[in-house]
User: Fold this.
Amino acid sequence: MEKFSQKNLLRISKFTFQKLITILQMKRIIILISCALSTWTTAQIAPPPTIQRSNTTSRGLTVNSRKGTLIEKKISNLGKFKNLNIQKIVTKDISDSSSESLLGIMYEYETFDEISKKTLTVDKNELGKLIQALQTVEQKENEKTTQETKYKFVTMSNIEFGSIYREKLSSWVNYIKIPSHYLNQNLLEFNKDELKELIGVLKKAEQEL
Assistant:
């Protein structure tokens, strides 16, 4: 009788253990199914991820630098200073309609064999800083000074606007230095009255951007 009880106990224990394993396996399957259903439901409800495109590159280039898309450029002439054409340049990415407006400074340079045109750009924020800098220089030129003094403002496109007080001549000389391979073509000098004219042209351009 005792042996029979021990056998029954072993059978019951074995059966209980197997049943426990089966229950655990079923719970695991149920959890996996629940996770799969949850993931599938979320995928059906949530919108697809939006791919964000940066408008600028590490070099500060903008819409005009994009590859693999159709770019539209429109140019309007806003004025002229010396031999520089001041322009409004609007570039637009046709695929997403993003656009930007820039100030363009176009100039021509000539060598023995060719005549070329080049346009450098300044954005609206930088243009405001340039105008402020030139207005400050204009004020400084109206002040008395007894020593050689120099000022310069360089844009992101490496256009240098500067002013020099020449002590020997007791006068100011303003200049615009355009980056170029031809050194005799890239320096434009002008006087105080022309500085005022330049500021006026740039202010008008700023309103158009």
